[in-house]
Fold:
Amino acid sequence: MAAQPLPSPVVPADPAPGPLHVAVIMDGNGRWAKARGLPRTAGHKRGADSVRRIVKSSAELGISYLTLFGFSSENWTRPETEVRDLMGLLRFYLEREVAELSREGVRFRVIGDRERLPADTVKLIENAERSTAHNTRLNLTLALSYGSRQEIVAAARKLAVEVAAGRMKPEDIDEDAFARRLFTDAIPDPDLLIRTSGEQRISNFLLWQLAYTELVFTDTLWPDFGHAELEAAIATYRSRDRRYGGVTS
Ligand code: IPE
Ligand code: IPE
Ligand code: MG
Structure:
């Protein structure tokens, strides 16, 4: 009997809904600048423009949670001048953007090790979190001085302290108890992770939370990432079959 032709790939009849939560590893600012003979800081500045665009687009596209990787625990090893420029840019963003975020109904949060951030920046972060706490249209989380292994170790330590103090029994430690001690308590796991710039790695971002997240990698450098690229990544996400270890018909 002649072999049946293979069906052409189609979008599943019941595409994955959402995504409710999109996480982004915003990478490629330095290469964007280098390609234009500009200093790396110029790339970071343009990267900040992309952040503004993507926050607006996410709200328009009905995304409820947007989590952006802005600065990793490991990024502290970069040259002092670059770190200083990035912190300056962050301060500028926090001073200028909070009112606009509020106008757009955005709730702003920061996850990461605040103790390593400059004191004035921490104040601006706290102020931004407080003044946007009532907003519900889009939950924007910026990961700053963030490392997922460090977050997991800190959660383990918090549980150990509670067990040692007799407030918890070892058998009370389950996935839920663990997740509640991560920075992302109260934030659902990402449905979609986008990494720009062609790199295909996680770089210590949300290791626990990405267990069943759909990963989309794009060669576009972060300063060139806009509404159309976000829509394309969402379309890819919707064509995926999320199985969570089970079987689907
Ligand atoms: C991402 O761009 C921004 C940060 C990590 C702070 P990079 O600065 O990593 O840019 P590339 O990867 O060197 O191009
Ligand atoms: C990951 O990008 C961190 C952020 C985007 C903030 P990196 O540029 O630091 O990652 P590696 O070094 O290429 O893995
Ligand atoms: Mg990079």
User: Anything to note?
Assistant: The longest strand covers residues 138-146. The CA atoms of residues 155 and 181 lie 5 Å apart.
